[in-house]
C-alpha cells in the first residue's frame, strides 16, 4: 500500500486535446495513489482527446475550464506534454496566467516532454535549469533557461522530464515536491 503523502493536497492538471495519454494518466495515477485530489482542467469542460504519440488514444473528461479555475485553490500543478497540447495552451491567455500564478506563489509544478513550451510562453523559466523533449532545447534557451538532457530535473519547486520513458522518475519526484 502506498503511503498517503498527498492527503489533503489538491493538484491541478492542465491540458487540452492532443495531450500525450501516458504523460497525463501516469502522474494522475501517482497523485491519486499518494492520496492527493486531482482536478482535470482544460480550455473548456468536456471530453478531451488524448494521443498515444501520433495515434488517437482514449478520451478523458475535464472537470472545469481554465478560465473558471483559481490557482489559489491548488497546492500544485501538472502540465503533461504531447506536441499539440502545449502548443494550443500557450496561445490561451487564461492558461498562461494560470501557470504564472503557480510560479508567483512558489507552488510545485511538474512538466514533461513538450509541456515546457507553456512555461516559456509564461516567461517562468528564465534563470532555471530544465529538461524537455530535445526539440524544445532552443526555445527554452531563448526563454532564458539552462537546458539539460536528464531523465528528471528539479529546480526549486519545478520538476521537468523529457519523455514517456522518464515517467517513473518524473512521478516519483513530482510526488516528493507536492508532499513538501
How would you characterize this protein structure?
- This protein is of the alpha/beta class and 180 residues long.
- Helices cover 31% and strands 28% of the residues.
- The chain contains 6 helices and 12 strands.
- It has helices spanning 21-33, 84-89, 93-104, 116-121, 137-142, 167-179, and strands spanning 10-14, 19-20, 37-42, 46-52, 55-62, 64-65, 76-79, 109-112, 129-130, 146-147, 152-155, 158-161.
- Strands 6-3-1-7-8-12-11 form a 7-stranded mixed beta sheet, sandwiched between helices. Strands 2-4-5 form a 3-stranded mixed beta sheet. Strands 9-10 form a two-stranded parallel ribbon.
- Helix 1 (21-33) packs across helix 6 (167-179).
- The radius of gyration is 14 Å and the shape is globular.
- It starts with 9 loop residues before the first strand and ends with a helix.
- 49% of the residues are buried.
- The mean pLDDT is 97.
What separation lies between the terminal Cα atoms?
A: 20 Å
Beta-strand proportion: 25-35%
Strand and helix order: EEHEEEEEHHEHEHEEEH
C-alpha geometry: globular
Largest sheet: 7 strands, mixed
Low-confidence stretches: none
- The Cα radius of gyration reads 14 Å
Number of helices: 6
Can you count the beta strands? 12
| Share in helix | 25-40%
Whole-number average pLDDT?
A: 97
- Main β-sheet, spatial strand arrangement: 6-3-1-7-8-12-11
